[in-house]
Design a protein that fits this description.
- The protein has about 130 residues and is an alpha+beta fold.
- The protein has a single domain, classed as Jelly Rolls (Sandwich), CATH 2.60.120.10.
- Helices cover about 25% and strands about 35% of the residues.
- A five-stranded antiparallel sheet has the order 1-2-9-4-7. The chain has a four-stranded antiparallel sheet with strand order 3-8-5-6, with no helix packed on it.
Length: about 130
């Protein structure tokens, strides 16, 4: 695993992951989101029959793990580097600090959208079981 961390001017952390590295696992506590700068990441979950379901393959510019920034629920899926990956990591703490300085109306809209997406995802997952 190559998990070097360097700070960029915006104080976000740049991380490097080797191919096949599990960035985070389904069910664990979420504490960060990631923006892919290069490489490919697979987003997968396991159903009740222990079969793996691939939800997406993400690449440059895609964001993953973002739901963890808004609530304290466990990760809904695993994220695995399919190729070497360089990603910007934003911790939940940093996100909340930045969110606190956002216009309250915008913050309310974002939180409402996240709640709606989380509820739709929960319903979709229940139907898949």
């Amino acid at each position: 695993m190559d998990d070097r961390i360097t700070n960029n001017p915006a104080s976000l952390k740049i991380r490097h992951y080797a191919a096949k590295y599990i960035i985070f696992e389904e069910g664990e506590a979420g504490n960060a989101a990631y923006i892919i700068r290069s490489g490919k990441v697979s987003i997968d979950s396991t159903n009740q029959s222990n079969n793996t379901q691939r939800w997406a393959v993400l690449g440059k510019g895609d964001i993953f793990g973002e739901m963890a920034l808004f609530d304290d629920r466990p990760r809904m899926a695993s994220a695995t580097a399919l190729t070497p990956v360089e990603a910007i990591r934003m911790s939940k703490e940093e996100f909340l600090e930045r969110l606190a300085s956002t216009d309250p109306a915008i913050m309310g809209m974002v939180l409402a959208m996240v709640t709606r997406v989380r509820n739709m995802t929960d319903e979709f997952m229940r139907q898949k079981e």
